[in-house]
Amino acid sequence: MYKVSSKQIAVMNIQYKYFPLTKFLNDAVKNGVKNIELWGAAPHFHMEDMTYREILNVRREIERRGLHLVCFTPEQCVYPINLAAPGRDARRRSVKFFENSIRAAGELGCKKVLVTSGTGYFDGSDQEEAWKRSAENLAGLGDMAEHYGITLALEVLRRDESNLVYDLSSLQKMLNELNHASIGGMIDTIPMALAKESPAMYLKALGERLVHVHFIDGAPKGHLAWGDGVLDMKQYLKEFADFGYSGYLSLEITDGRYFMEPSVSVEQSIRKLREALPE
């Protein structure tokens, strides 16, 4: 029997960007899911435009529905955010962005914030320097996160998104170099599959340093609802079970096909997962 259960499922609001945040929260309740991951971007939670009172109001909306916020994921792939940027002003802005994200997570009562390494130039001309810039800034953010009692989940990106942390080997290298108690690694099943890797590989290498998972289908690209791609959900779940993974499996469904009817993607994915998992 699987050691992972449906109680570890979390849902995310990213495909609800054309709808109110309350619709996403209500859908989580409707589908019997207790855990959510908050994508931090407009119109739901673009913290740079929000007052303290507005942040607390989002927390109240979450808590009054009996939901548990397991991870805060500020949008950092389409905004001008890059911890390894060659320009000092860009790095300063990026560090400040993540510092504010940690503060916002604290106000939300959330114990985990997703971060990415940033990237250097894809011609490799600043590879070593970009790595050092990323590591230095991640270490500083780790110190701040520790002060707030928060864990940073360092996500592996695709190779066309970053040339720094893009597979298990580069993630392990960064985590070992940082050696920080408040920084762990995380899987996104799409970059993982594209790198021809598996959950078992990460679990064996990282153990308890694997702190979060984006668990979605793909073809193999695309962040799809389960059942719309080609990834082997049951095999992945078996591997998580075999290694006793006790963290969350979060549905980061981003493909544009779901934007007009986001509820359907959640309902379909939850149904597929529940068919494969015990309560």
Order of helices and strands: EHEHEHEHEHEHHEHEH
Low-pLDDT residue spans: none
The overall pLDDT, averaged over residues, is 96
Quaternary state reads: single chain
How many helices? The count is: 9
Question: Which percent range describes the beta-strand content?
Answer: 5-15%
Largest sheet: 8 strands, parallel
Overall number of strands: 8
Shape: globular
What percentage of residues falls in helices of 4 or more residues? 40-55%
Class per helix and strand makeup? alpha/beta
What integer value in Å does the Rg equal?
18 Å
Provide the spatial order of strands within the biggest beta sheet.
Answer: 3-2-1-8-7-6-5-4
Q: What's the N-to-C terminus distance? A: 11 Å
Commentary on this structure:
The chain is of the alpha/beta class and about 280 residues long. It contains nine helices and eight strands. An eight-stranded parallel beta sheet has the order 3-2-1-8-7-6-5-4. Helix 8 links the parallel strand 7 and strand 8. The radius of gyration is 18 Å and the shape is globular. The N and C termini lie close together (about 10 Å). About 45% of the residues are buried. The model has no long low-confidence stretch (mean pLDDT about 95).
